[in-house]
Amino acid sequence: HKYHLELELEDVLDKDSTVNCTAEVLYHLGNKNIAPDVQFKLEGELKNTDEADNVFYNRIKSLEKELVAENIPDNHGNVSPEMEPIHLLAWVASGYVIWQNSTENTKFQLAQIKHVKQVKRSDEYLEFDYKILLHEMLTQEIIPWQMTVLWHPQHGVEVTRDSRQPKEASE
Fold first, then answer.
1. Residues in domain Cystatin LXN-type (predicted)?
2. pLDDT at position 127 over 90
3. Measuring CA to CA, which of 38, 47, 48, 77 is 20 to 30 A from 89?
4. Rounded to whole angstroms, how far apart are CA atoms 126 and 57?
């Protein structure tokens, strides 16, 4: 099945800034193991994040110990300012996981980062191991997921590994 969509996207960093988006989504019949094909076109530009990306990158690179954090957002929905970039990185990476695992009958959303740990690397990339909770909106199921994310401000985000975890991993 093919869907034609017209959306207005809100910039997560600048709520007053929006761009129009048209998209075509093609779900493959019969094969639930193939991600849908997505073609899209943006009209306009989102806010440039280079400066904020570099500030975050340099802050994490300068830490004496690898970053470790839990429960982002907290149980009241709050994200501390210093954890906001970690949350946004998880949000972008989980978008890839959601796309790769979606069908016409799913509606996933990142609910929470249960645990994130920075992995020490010898190159210029930052690497994080995330344990996240995805909320499947149609069934109200909370699904634990593990993902390993590489990031560099000039090269973007890459999910190098991801896997659905057993239910008990969400506790």
1. 1-48, 68-171
2. yes
3. 38
4. 8
On the question of pLDDT at 21 being above 70, the answer is yes
- CA distances 51 to 57, 59, 79, 129, Å, are 10, 12, 21, 24
Give the separation between CA 50 and CA 5, rounded to whole angstroms: 29
Q: What is the pTM of this model?
A: 0.91
* Closest among 123, 116, 166, 126 to 150, alpha carbons compared: 126
Rounded distance between C-alpha atoms, residue 39 and residue 29, angstroms: 18
C-alpha–C-alpha distance, residues 97 and 123, integer Å:
25
What is the rounded radius of gyration, in angstroms, for the C-alpha atoms of the chain? 17
The pLDDT of residue 98: 96
